[in-house]
Write a structure and sequence with these properties.
Strand order of the largest sheet: 1-2-3
Distance between the termini: 20 Å
Shape: globular
Number of helices: 5
């Protein structure tokens, strides 16, 4: 897989392996599975029992904005993945420069969701051994690493 600049306002992922193309196609739906990842995606802004008013304000004002931001990012990624001419039999995806932040956001959401759903630990994520692709857990670990690699590519592109 390669990320190439195609114009002043667009990037293109090319030569995507079919398995990785599947992971890309799944990205918006994976990122939307927030149920088990609530604590990671919407962490308590202040630890301890004090500051109930601050927590209430955060829950009433900040969290809904985060939810809208997360949903908007997933929607942008879904549109990019389904755009005509942007997806050539799963081997190419066009990403407008203006959408890089949304992609980074959706990739991060998806990674946090997968970590929580699979109960991965730091040891699981350390890359010391290749994942066992014969298991769902191994495929989930590969997906996390792929999403992380794509985040790195997009961060370099944005810089």
């Amino acid at each position: 897989m390669r990320l190439r600049r195609t114009s002043t306002d667009s990037w293109k992922l090319r030569d995507i392996h079919p398995l990785l193309a599947t992971f890309l196609t799944e990205l918006p739906k994976v990122a939307a599975r927030h149920k088990k990842a609530q604590a990671r995606l919407y962490p308590d802004p202040i630890g301890g029992a004090a500051h109930a008013e601050f927590r209430r304000d955060w829950k009433e004002h900040v969290r809904p904005e985060l939810e809208r931001l997360f949903a908007s990012s997933r929607d942008i990624v879904a549109r990019d993945l389904s755009a005509p001419g942007g997806h050539n039999h799963g081997t190419e995806v066009a990403i407008p420069c203006a959408h890089l932040e949304a992609w980074l956001n959706a990739l991060n959401q998806a990674r946090l969701v997968i970590v929580e759903e699979s109960n991965f630990t730091e040891a699981d994520l350390d890359h010391h051994e290749p994942p066992d692709l014969a298991t769902q857990r191994g495929l989930s670990l590969l997906k996390i690493h792929f999403y992380g690699h794509l985040q790195e590519l997009l961060i370099e592109a944005a810089g």
